[in-house]
Design a protein that fits this description.
By secondary structure, the chain is α+β, with helices and mostly antiparallel strands. It is built from six helices and nine strands, in the order βββααβαββααβββα. The chain has one domain (10-172): Glucose Oxidase, domain 3. The chain has helices spanning 34-38, 41-50, 69-73, 97-103, 110-115, 160-172, and strands spanning 10-13, 17-25, 32-33, 60-66, 83-88, 90-91, 123-130, 137-140, 151-153. It has a four-stranded antiparallel sheet, covered by helices on one side. Mean pLDDT is 80; it is low at 1-9.
């Protein structure tokens, strides 16, 4: 009779908490449109010949980090940014939203429906990130079978401080 060893394995992890909001429409062509600006031969030629054009952009065209008012009140953390803003200067429309559904594991069709009013419109999004959350989640092995998915409990907003920082970041943006 063999000896079976079971390990209970738990990892504590801290993850950035992101709040994505928008889209905000624009009256001109300041935001990139995937189909119009990227999926065309001139964009490819410009990038291959000069390393310029829309294909040379990450679409996350701006980011800023700063200390929230709560961070400024916390001894020893008053100089450590706990909020971040990310400007996504790429238009998202209904059909293009399927890429985001796949990337962020959102049920198919949900973001497509949300963004369908943006079809043919230039827009941008803003992400507010709580970059130093106090909430700590857990990653636990479900079993000794390496094919079983782990149990993930991110415990977002488990610490009320994170919600207060997130709200401040949204209001200030």
């Amino acid at each position: 009779m063999g000896l079976m060893l079971y390990l209970y394995f738990v990892i504590a992890f801290v993850d950035h908490i992101s709040i994505w909001f928008g889209p905000f429409t624009l009256n001109n062509s300041m935001a990139m449109d995937f189909e119009a600006d990227i999926l065309n031969p001139s964009a490819v030629a410009s990038y291959l010949s000069e390393g310029k054009g829309p294909l040379s952009s990450t679409a996350a065209d701006g980011t800023a980090q700063f200390v929230s008012s709560l961070g400024k009140k916390t001894p020893g953390e008053e100089n450590w940014p706990d909020l971040q803003w990310i400007l996504i200067a790429a238009s998202i429309d209904g059909p293009g939203a399927s890429n985001y559904e796949h990337a962020f594991n959102v049920k198919p069709g949900v973001l497509q429906k949300y963004f369908e009013s943006m079809n043919g419109k230039r827009n941008f999004q803003l992400i507010t990130v709580v970059s130093r959350p106090k909430s700590v989640g857990q990653l636990t092995l479900a079993s000794s079978d390496p094919n079983d998915y782990p149990i993930i409990d991110p415990k977002y907003y488990d610490n009320h401080h994170d919600m207060e920082v997130a709200i401040e970041g949204i209001i200030d943006s």
